[in-house]
Structure prediction request, 263 residues.
Amino acid sequence: MSDVSEAAVRPVLSMRGLRKHFGGREVLTGIDLDVLPGETVALLGPSGAGKSTLLRCANMLERPDGGSVWLDGELIGYEQERTGLRALGERRMGRQRQEMSMVFQSFNLFPHWTALRNITEGPRHVRGVSREEAEQTARRLLDRVGLGDREDAYPAQLSGGQQQRVAIARALAMRPKLVLFDEPTSALDPSNVGEVISVMKELAQDGVTMLVVTHEIGFAHEAADRVVVMAQGGIVEQGEAREVLDNPRTDVTRAFLGLGARA
Ligand SMILES: Nc1ncnc2c1ncn2[C@@H]1O[C@H](COP(=O)(O)OP(=O)(O)O)[C@@H](O)[C@H]1O
Ligand SMILES: [Mg+2]
Prediction:
């Protein structure tokens, strides 16, 4: 039954030979990365390593210069034609992009909308979900992120941690195949970090498929299945989360973890 098990582990996200340069500078040097269904992968590495660019190339907010991105077996951003690959237009790419939600460092909630409306707007107008159903889902998600009593609050009335939890609920409301997080706690007051991390840990436990750029080693240690470490546009180390974090093999990882270089 080997083809059954192979089908069962088809990656949700798959990158092959992904390359990107800005001007003369190679920022992604040929990345191969898979995220399996239900997996939480923590993407670590120093500032400038190319982590944000990798996420932005995953959903084609940034066009890669080479290589390919597959979501659940579907090529992203291009279609195969007889003569080769052809770039998809914005509309079709937008449809693919909806399958991946992104959570940013700076929440990006609409300030003049309530928490509830920030969450329902995408499903209603992009996915065509009815208002009633969108609100029902949004309330369930607000409950899930611990904000069941704040649906009428505007972003300015919420703390940074609460706003980020609304942003996470908004991301989930689109029923994405994958959620991409780019340093979701980096802009928060330290006292707000824990509440966001604990929501993310619950999502990881619930089997939400996530690729998370983070400096929160505790999160990576407790919630990630796998850790991938990047430096200078390439992957320098990866493996089972605790294995990598407890026994880092490269100086890049050791430095990132605040350990000295090996003697
Ligand atoms: N739009 C851009 N134009 C030019 N250079 C960029 C752009 N985006 C990122 N870079 C450069 O690419 C490198 C990697 O950036 P980034 O992906 O943001 O790294 P990280 O998220 O790991 O800190 C950095 O040197 C950055 O200055
Ligand atoms: Mg970044």
In short: The radius of gyration is 19 Å. The chain has a mean pLDDT of 94.
